[in-house]
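Quick start: read one record
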Amino acid sequence: MPTPSQPRLNPLPALIFSSRWLQLPLYLGLIVAQGVYVFLFVKELWHLIQDVNNLSEQAIMLLVLGLIDVVMISNLLVMVIVGGYETFVSRLRLEGHPDQPEWLSHVNASVLKVKLAMAIIGISSIHLLKTFIEAGMVGGLPLCGTMEALDVARAYAAAGGDSARTCTTYSADGVLWQAVIHTIFIFSAVGIAWTDKLMQHTASKRQGVVKE
């Protein structure tokens, strides 16, 4: 049975609708960024393998957390590239493909926002955990850039030291604010999910009223 031909759009609506293809270079640029993260992952992994005999358990943990961080950011990029292209540019037509992502079959702008919010929370959690570990490793050291840190570095250099860490970039206020920001991310994700659920409930009620 022949399918009915699609109605032709007027020039102005056709131009406006075709403007969605302007997003294509943006998604291609994110693919390039994905390649950069692959290079960064291989570089960090090689560093871990090379120096494994000279690293402490905490240093290895920090490097592994860094690798996980790269993977999670890469996953976020995939969701933005695939989900964003499917939602805002054009269909990928992956129906029936064995590697089609499960979430892609019901993706829309609202679902994409919730998934991105959850991914950002996961990335923030990794960063916060790294901060807690590093802050514990360098506890008691002066803050880098202060006169106290400079005096400690000079004293250590005069004593013949050359590799120990003499200052830290982590302060109590910095760790506190990072924890506060992470909490804000969590509340934001909850707010987005609640708003999406509320909108779906409202749409369902409207459909019920129309059917009646």
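The mean pLDDT is 79.
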